Structures are given as C-alpha cells and as structure tokens.
Amino acid sequence: MEPLSSYAGCTLATVLKTAPLDPLENRILLCHALRITRVQLITQSERRLDAAQSEALTALYARRLRGEPIAYIIGQREFYGLNLRVTPDVLIPRPDTELLVELAMERLPQGAALLDMGTGSGAIAIAIAHTRPDAVVTALDASAAALAIARENATTNQVRVTLLESDWYAALPQDQRFAVIASNPPYIVAGDVHLSQGDLRFEPVDALTDHADGLTDLRSIIDGAPGHLLPGGWLLMEHGYDQAAAVRGLLSGTGFKEVRSWRDLAGIERVSGGRLA
C-alpha cells in the first residue's frame, strides 16, 4: 500500500486505518511525527492533522517503505529497559544481546571492573552500568562517531562509563585488568547474503562483518584477553548462529576453562565464553 499524498485534515484514527505500514510501525511513526505518546494517540483519536504534520508523516512513511529501519528514522531504540539514541554510525541494539548483558552481570563481582569491546551505541556498557552502579565499566570502540553516540547515551541515562577510542586492546594500559570482558564484535562472514537484506543494508558494515571468515575479530579478542583479565575472570562474546563450536574451540585452545555456549530466546547458541584459569 502506498501512503496517501496528503493526510491533511485526516483524524488520527483515520491515519492509523489507512497508513501503509503494519499497525505497530504506523503508531510509532505517527507518535514520532506529532511528538505525542501512545496514550495521547488513543485519547486524541479525533484530532486532525494539519498540512505540515501531514508532510512530515508522509516523509517518514516514504523512508520506511524504502526499507530504512524504524530505529534510525526515529533516532532511538529501547535496550534493557533503557532508551538509547541510534544513528547509522552504530548498530541497532537487539534483544538477543541482552543475554550477553545478563551473563556478564552474573559473573561480575561487587565493585569489579568490566570491559565492553566494540561498544557502538554503548548498549552493553550502559545497561550494565545502570543495573550495577557498583561496577567500574570501560567501553572501547574504534569509531569516534560511535563513541560520540555512546557518550551521549551514557549522559542521558546518567551512568558512569569510561569510553576510549581503541582498536581492540590497543589503547589500554598493559597492566589494566578486568573481572569480565564482554563483546559483540563484527562476526558476519564477508559476502553473506544477509548484509544486503533488511535492516543490515543501512547499518555500518564495519560493525557487522570482519570482511573475512567472520572469526577474525573474535580471534583477536580471545588472543588478547589473557593479558587483560584477572585470574578467574570471564570472557563472554556474542557470535553468529553457526559459530559456537568454532568459538569454543578458540577459547579452549587459548587455555580458557569452563568453556560453554548459551542459547538465546530462539534457542540459538548466541553467546560463548570461558574463565581464565
């Protein structure tokens, strides 16, 4: 269904019935265009759009119909109960990654230090710092643009996170150690068809793929982790749906103990990790 050329004079109820997207996306974009809440959308159902509001809404619909992710259109995404600003400079946080947050906090002693590698929007680091204000959280990213978004999100959500521009461990002092290292690195294989489909078409490609076999960055993180983990510390990494066995092998080969994988809500082995002996 194509959007109407103009919604000027239409009530909110009419727009919701005739708009070109599914009901949830229609509600999100209508609320965003009019700067109203979902409750106001219901209570003001007979409110009519003026010409400027119609023009703004039609532009939003056109962007979505071209495939642009809702999160980029409205500039935010909820993650772990927090509202995070997102732009095309960062990946869109996904519910699957909340598993990594839970596993990291379960293994983080009171008052201990945690490192989030490749933080992007800051989702993992900020969720942990918000839930565990006792934790000393550091987050790294090679992208200055991504770090600017992460810094804004940390400020908005009133958490303390140390943010460093770094190519993996490069910017860390050699003697800095953490109780937990967590990461959601690029892991999609170069040329994977999914990179040209759906939301991934609009997301930063360097945050999605290592431009190789999908394991390059996971190897780098695993290889460098013993030099930055405390004895008994944990390394936890999100990875692709078919990479769990390979990642477990890399962890075991580097000397990690208690190596295992954890399944997400869809039953897919989504996170693997191990403890430094």
Automatic annotation (TrEMBL):
The organism's superkingdom is given as Bacteria
The segment(s) forming the Release factor glutamine methyltransferase N-terminal domain are 15-75
Among the GO molecular function terms of this UniProt record, one is:
nucleic acid binding
Name of a matching Pfam family: PrmC_N
Q: Which keywords appear in this protein's UniProt record, sorted alphabetically?
A: Methyltransferase, S-adenosyl-L-methionine, Transferase
Q: What does this protein do?
A: Methylates the class 1 translation termination release factors RF1/PrfA and RF2/PrfB on the glutamine residue of the universally conserved GGQ motif.
| InterPro entries, per database record | DNA_methylase_N6_adenine_CS (IPR002052), HemK-like (IPR004556), N5-glutamine_MTase (IPR050320), PrmC_N (IPR040758), RF_methyltr_PrmC (IPR019874), SAM-dependent_MTases_sf (IPR029063), Small_mtfrase_dom (IPR007848)
- What NCBIfam families does the record tag this protein with? hemK_fam (TIGR00536), RF_mod_PrmC (TIGR03534)
Give me the gene this protein comes from.
prmC
Family to which the UniProt record says this protein belongs? Belongs to the protein N5-glutamine methyltransferase family. PrmC subfamily.
List the top taxonomic levels of the source: Bacteria, Pseudomonadati, Pseudomonadota, Betaproteobacteria, Burkholderiales
**Which one GO biological process term can you cite for this protein?**
methylation
Q: Which parts of the sequence belong to the Methyltransferase small domain?
A: 97-192
Annotated source species: Herbaspirillum aquaticum
Residue numbers binding S-adenosyl-L-methionine: 118-122, 141, 168, 184
Catalytic activities: L-glutaminyl-[peptide chain release factor] + S-adenosyl-L-methionine = N(5)-methyl-L-glutaminyl-[peptide chain release factor] + S-adenosyl-L-homocysteine + H(+)
Enzyme Commission number(s): 2.1.1.297
Listed binding positions for substrate are: 184-187
* Protein name according to UniProt: Release factor glutamine methyltransferase
